[in-house]
Amino acid sequence: MTINTGDTGFMLLCSSLVMLMTPGLAFFYGGLVGRKNVLTIMIQSFVSMGWTTVIWYLVGYSLCFSGDVGGIIGNLDMAFLRGVDLNTASPINTGIPLIVFVAYQMMFAIITPALITGAFTNRVTFKAYMLFLTLWLIFVYCPFVHMVWGGGILQKWGVLDFAGGIVVHNIAGMAALASVLFVGRRKSVDSGPHSIPLVALGTGLLWFGWYGFNAGSEFRVDSVTAIAFLNTDISASFAAVTWLIIEWITTRKPKFLGLLTGAVAGLATITPAAGYVSPTSAVIIGVIAGGVCFYAVALKNKLQWDDALDVWGVHGVGGLIGIILLGIFASTSFNPAGVDGLLMGNPGFFYKQLVAVVVSSIWAFGFTYGMLWLIDKITPVRVLGDAQHTGLDHSLHGEVAYVESF
After folding, report:
1. What is the span of the domain harbouring residue 389?
2. What is the CATH number of the domain that holds 359?
3. Which residues partner with 124 through β-bridges?
4. Nearest alpha carbon to residue 354 among 188, 208, 160, 82
5. What DSSP designation does 80 have?
6. pLDDT in 10s for each residue of the chain, 406 residues
7. From CA 117, how far away is CA 308, in angstroms rounded?
């Protein structure tokens, strides 16, 4: 193979940016929980960096991108990265070594299950979480990567997802909702975020890393890369301001936490559409994301679902509406390799996106709920006794983030 050094260097940079998102998520979630549970939520993100890499090397990459079994999942021909060497080209851009493609996709696998942890914070045992992480990657994440990006049934049918509206955000959000309903409410509820500055740090790292997440999904440096980069920032910014304004009107005060949450909602929502729509469409998507996700969180609160860190309302709903809005706003004027959406006279593509959202939502919710039921038969999922009141940092891990907590 002939290596395109520019594209290869860019993809290595993007892989690093996506890797940075997982520590960013740890800070984001860590600031949102109480002082006695900071390390517990952060280790759930950081351990994914280690354990998901192990799974990815053993079978994960192969199940996603090697062969095809019924259009649903790959095979094990590339287990242990068999056949990957210095001369193997990436399947999407032959100027990039396959080893770079493997690394980039691995970073997506690392952060996706970590997103779910914000839903069941402060009440799940670490042993159960490790089983959850393993099974969810193999039976939910890998099949959808294959179906959407690995030559599976949805990709062949014409469903598009530029950087992970289905593959990352929608399935993680629906899994989060299933987790909330299975695990139940916390016995000891945090009084509120213990450190909004930590949340701000995490948001900054996520926003920064998201440029690698979205722009990198073009797998080369061209004008589509640039439009994905710009659309990412536009959507995040308009969503952040929209959330801020709505909350300002509702509570009579401009809330920093609302601004930060709105930005993440905009980032999640533009993800599937980033490289397929115009900047003007990105503005509309950002405004819709800020408003819809704000009211999704309000609905969650009204229904008293204990989705502690609003994973469903931000990532699940954001990913869902992002896929649908892609079906509306997609334009070949901004990506000749894409398709035109509903507004460009192609209702068929819009309907395909709707079906993909329904299928992914049902699969992710149903399997996650059943998987938690099974795990609970092996080891308790829910933290028992007084551990929730004591704080999981001390009771589960024997460490504390702040000495004055005890």
Report:
1. 5-405
2. 1.10.3430.10
3. 382
4. 160
5. G
6. 799 999 999 999 999 999 999 999 999 999 999 999 999 999 999 999 999 999 999 999 999 999 999 999 999 999 999 999 999 999 999 999 999 999 999 999 999 999 999 999 999 999 999 999 999 999 999 999 999 999 999 999 999 999 999 999 999 999 999 999 999 988 877 778 999 999 999 999 999 999 999 999 999 999 999 999 999 999 999 999 999 999 999 999 999 999 999 999 999 999 999 999 999 999 999 999 999 999 999 999 999 999 999 999 999 999 999 999 999 999 999 999 999 999 999 999 999 999 999 999 999 999 999 999 999 999 999 998 788 888 899 989 999 999 864 4
7. 9
Give the list of residues 6+ apart from residue 60 with CB closer than 8 angstroms, or none: 52, 106, 109, 137, 138, 142
**Residue 340 phi, psi dihedral angles, 5° rounding:** -85, 145
CA 234 from chain center: how many Å? Answer: 19
Written as six digits, the tokens of 269 are 């929502």
List all residues 6 or more positions away from 112 whose beta carbon is below 8 Å from its beta carbon.
Answer: 141, 164, 167, 168, 171, 172
CA separation for the pair 212, 10 (Å, rounded): 9
Rounded-to-integer distance, Cα 321 and Cα 187, Å: 33
Distance from C-alpha of 241 to C-alpha of 233, rounded to nearest angstrom: 12
pLDDT in tens, 190-221: 778 999 999 999 999 999 999 999 999 999 99
Rounded to whole angstroms, what are the CA distances from 17 to 40, 49, 73, 164, 249? 24, 14, 27, 15, 35
Q: What angle do CA 48, 150, 285 make, to 5 degrees?
A: 75
Q: Is 310 exposed, middle or buried (0-12, 13-18, 19+ CB in 10 A)?
A: buried
Count of structural domains within the chain:
1
Which pair of tokens denotes residue 336?
A: 């000749």
* Closest to 122 in 3D by CA, of 399, 301, 258, 307: 307
Q: At what angle do helices 279-303 and 256-270 cross, to 10 degrees?
A: 120
* Structure token digits, residue 349: 């593509």
Q: Which residues pair with 239 in a beta bridge?
A: none
Task: Give the Å distances, CA to CA, from 135 to 112, 140, 159, 371, 374.
Answer: 13, 8, 25, 8, 11
Euclidean distance between CA atoms 352 and 103, whole angstroms: 30
